Amino acid sequence: MNLQNASLPPRNEMVRAMLERDTAYEGVFFTAVKTTGIFCRPSCTARKPKPENVEFFAHADECLSEGYRACLRCKPLDAAAIAPDWVQKLLGAVEATPDRQWSDAQLLAEGIEPLKLRRWFKQHFGMTFHAWLRTRRLGMALGGIRQGESIDHAAFDSGYESLSGFRDAFQKSFHITPGKAADSEPLLFTRLTTPLGPMIAMAERRGLVMLEFLDRPALTRELEALQNRYGYVIAPGHNAHLRQIEDELAQYFAGKLCEFRVALHLPGSEFSRQVWAELVKIPYGQTSTYGAIAAILGKPGASRAVGLANGHNRVSIVVPCHRVIGADGSLTGYGGGQPRKAFLLRLENAALQLSQLSLPGMAREEA
């Protein structure tokens, strides 16, 4: 079985959800029918195939990489960017009453299975629901302290009954004491949904710092570097840069945006920043090589170093490391996985060809 599918629910559970069109499993898995070559959402209203003719995938891009086509009825590529109704309802309740404590018993009373919720949050946020809730409350406390609120008030407002417990949790989450929070640089993060799976976006006041797929193997190491090497305090939240990248990313996947305008702030070595600056210059729908970038930088023998800097890029898609291929034309490595790299290149090529085909017609209309 594909390693990426190791976190999928048991097969018998997915078969049941598919046959019953259970909307609670939206975004948790996709069904791919071997006999038709089509993949669907679990709740697709089309006639259900025999279970023995179905294989299951965690992500839409895995279905695409195996040669399956998206169902025209349930449009699974659109659904990949939508949380199921029961999750949206819960997120709305959290937003309305941010200080509410959610026990498993309270979740069950709301008709939410805690294990299913845990699995969904781990897949889409990289942490459990309770860990996300705790980090969110601490993030609100961080914002309060930075705005001049006392540590005592921040602790009690975020649901902690003891200052010592609050201080311990705060330091464990943000790697600084509450007393130093007022002078820290907050790095706010949010989850973004895309046809290729969930991504995490992080931005500070100067610009976007990270945009990565949540299942990227190096993600944990990158987060630790941002905290330990660059002194960031990471907390859930939104700012203008995060709202902008969410909008631009949606336009990009719709084939309507060729150039990102969101501000960037890219901590790294001088050489890495030089490489990343060259990546941004690679035109939409085109590719380059490590050797070509090394030559532009005046270091023709530094292809390997360019490759390493390329791999250390934290801002996927916007800093388009997916447009760098091997000298022999091979896709080579990609932190988000080669199927995603191939998808992005196909997306750009198709959008570029479509725009070129439409130009003559547009010219005639203008004439």
UniProtKB/TrEMBL annotation:
It is found in: Cytoplasm. CDD domains: ATase (cd06445). It catalyses: a 4-O-methyl-thymidine in DNA + L-cysteinyl-[protein] = a thymidine in DNA + S-methyl-L-cysteinyl-[protein]; a 6-O-methyl-2'-deoxyguanosine in DNA + L-cysteinyl-[protein] = S-methyl-L-cysteinyl-[protein] + a 2'-deoxyguanosine in DNA. Pfam families: Ada_Zn_binding, DNA_binding_1, HTH_18, Methyltransf_1N. This enzyme catalyzes only one turnover and therefore is not strictly catalytic. According to one definition, an enzyme is a biocatalyst that acts repeatedly and over many reaction cycles. Residues 111-184 form the HTH araC/xylS-type domain. This is Methylated-DNA--protein-cysteine methyltransferase. The active site is at C321. Belongs to the MGMT family.
